[in-house]
């Protein structure tokens, strides 16, 4: 028996903050993934599986099942500590893998309920783009599929511990101070997704990125925004509790991406290019079946 679940990571968030006392983010899923595989074979990948094993245990307990012996393997495209939802992708994929192993399937809401008992969670496992309370799960609003956008992923350097970040004593006050900007940013992004208007999405993401400078400043962000816009990018988003920035480009302007990247690297040598990804709809892909004979679910 073997099951496999794949969940995308993110390039930070399109928007993040507080609205009327509720924490939220708007997801920014991309085509980089974490994959959890459970099998009866004895191969194991050499990873730190602490959170994955906890997610498996909590899911088995939730389903009131006693799992038969299994081996777990984790494969991930996502760097750690950068704000690319690596742990959220790992944990959510593990929850669904445990359910499949037990002959069940979890809804996205059930996965969220389990994952949030482990740590703050990005909603990348929900279909499409969602507005999601990453701390308590009080808000779970589907927004729809995104228009096509390429994202040049940049790293401002260092790592951010999500748990420690969300325990900051001043975080609530700082988020409330930028609530008006966050509300406007969210309104633009929501309308942009609804109408397929990438410029509105970029406009909202850029506003949220700038507003977040009071909480977790990104070196060179104003310069990156200025350069990106001069090359036709629709905007810049950030990991609000991480280190990455994303330059949002319509696919029709791919010919300008290399020049934009070169200009950013000249102006901001401390900002490192990681990769180019696509904004995608979030969700999960699942396979289950006998060894080497998967059935896609």
Automatic annotation (TrEMBL):
The keyword Cytoplasm does not apply. The keyword rRNA processing does not apply. GO terms for molecular function: ATP binding; kinase activity. Keywords: ATP-binding, Kinase, Nucleotide-binding, Transferase. SUPFAM superfamilies: Ribosomal protein S5 domain 2-like. Residues 190-251 form the GHMP kinase C-terminal domain. Pfam families: GHMP_kinases_C, GHMP_kinases_N. It comes from the Bacteria. Residues 55-119 form the GHMP kinase N-terminal domain. PANTHER family: 4-DIPHOSPHOCYTIDYL-2-C-METHYL-D-ERYTHRITOL KINASE, CHLOROPLASTIC, L-THREONINE KINASE. This is Threonine kinase. It comes from Propionispora vibrioides.
């Amino acid at each position: 028996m073997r099951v496999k679940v794949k969940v995308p990571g993110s390039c930070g968030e399109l928007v993040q903050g507080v609205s009327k006392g509720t924490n939220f983010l708007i997801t920014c899923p991309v085509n980089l993934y974490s994959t959890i595989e459970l099998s009866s074979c004895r191969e194991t990948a050499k990873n730190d599986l602490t959170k994955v094993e906890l997610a498996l245990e909590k899911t088995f307990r939730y389903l009131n099942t006693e799992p038969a012996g299994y081996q777990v393997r984790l494969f991930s495209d996502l760097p750690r500590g950068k704000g690319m939802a690596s742990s959220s992708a790992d944990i959510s994929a593990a929850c669904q893998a445990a359910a499949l192993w037990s002959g069940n399937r979890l809804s996205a809401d059930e996965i969220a309920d389990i994952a949030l008992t482990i740590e703050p969670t990005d909603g990348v496992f929900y279909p499409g783009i969602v507005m999601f309370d990453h701390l308590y799960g009080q808000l779970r609003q589907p927004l729809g599929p995104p228009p096509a956008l390429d994202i040049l992923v940049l790293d401002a350097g260092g790592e951010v511990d999500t748990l420690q970040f969300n325990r900051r004593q001043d975080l609530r006050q700082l988020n409330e101070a930028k609530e008006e900007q966050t509300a406007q940013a969210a309104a633009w992004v929501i309308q942009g997704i609804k109408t397929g208007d990438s410029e509105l999405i970029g406009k909202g993401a850029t506003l949220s990125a700038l507003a977040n400078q009071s909480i977790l400043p990104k070196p060179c962000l104003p310069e990156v925004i200025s350069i990106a816009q001069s090359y036709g990018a629709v905007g810049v988003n950030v990991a609000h509790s991480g280190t990455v920035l994303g330059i949002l480009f319509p696919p029709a302007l791919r010919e300008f991406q290399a020049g934009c990247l070169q200009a950013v690297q000249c102006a901001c040598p401390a900002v490192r290019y990681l990769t180019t990804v696509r904004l995608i709809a979030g969700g999960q892909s699942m396979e289950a079946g006998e060894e080497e004979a998967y059935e896609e679910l």
